[in-house]
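ok so for the tutorial part 2 we go from a plain amino acid sequence to predicted structure tokens. step 1 is just haveing the sequence, like this:
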Amino acid sequence: MRRAGDQLTRIVMLLLLLLVSGIAIGLVFAYPVSLIKFGGGGAVRLDQAALAGQTEADAGLVQIADLPPGWVPGDPNLKVFGVLGSEFCGDQVELPSPLSNQKAAVFTNPDSGSTVIAQVLRTDRWQAARDYVAAVDDARGQCSEFFQTSPLGRVKSSVEAGSGSPPITDYASAAYVAKEGRSVSEWSMMAVGDLIVAITYAGPSRTSRTFLNQLEARILARLDPSNFAPEGVGSTTSVPGATTAPGGGGTPATTAPPAGGPADESGGSGGP
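step 2 — the prediction. this is what the tokens look like for a chain of 272 residues:
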């Protein structure tokens, strides 16, 4: 009888252990995936479905106020040299179906001879924006050098890692360093809801390690303020240097950047 009682006790304890483990596992799977942060370096996994269609596409463009002093609106014709829709290691990654024309803004720094090209495209599905960025990230890792098309013509460039850290998981970046050392083109790309946001920096040398990250942070504060600007952002303002491609349409409106000042070109790996 005693041996039977001990066996019954063991069975009851085993059942209780399984019950407690099951409750713990259930709580893990019940926690909203959109609230979990993934990736190294603090990269955030956005709730892309919830963000789709929530903001104007123009809010994804760099503004003049996002940039340090010395930057001015640049030649809008240079938008064709932006990374969005370009070749990666010689492969053309097909853009997803757009819901509207691509937006672009160009800024230059006359003192350093540098240019920033900002682009944003609204796609027909948020999944398409995410998949395009993933395809770009895969394509740019297929080579160590290739011929890049730039305002200087076709330039043989080495493909290096971008300077900054991914702020979100649906992200790609790289730096193209000209073999003859005359120029550097560094870019980043993000999927935010149904928007593809791209920033290209081009200059005689690499910019600071945080320059693109700071521009990305100001854009993310406008596109996803609940995660990146919990205290709110400023009022609506115009974006000098912005255009709609193809066609015209004047200067679009977007949201002012969060407090904290413009991006910093100094420090890091050296500014232009």
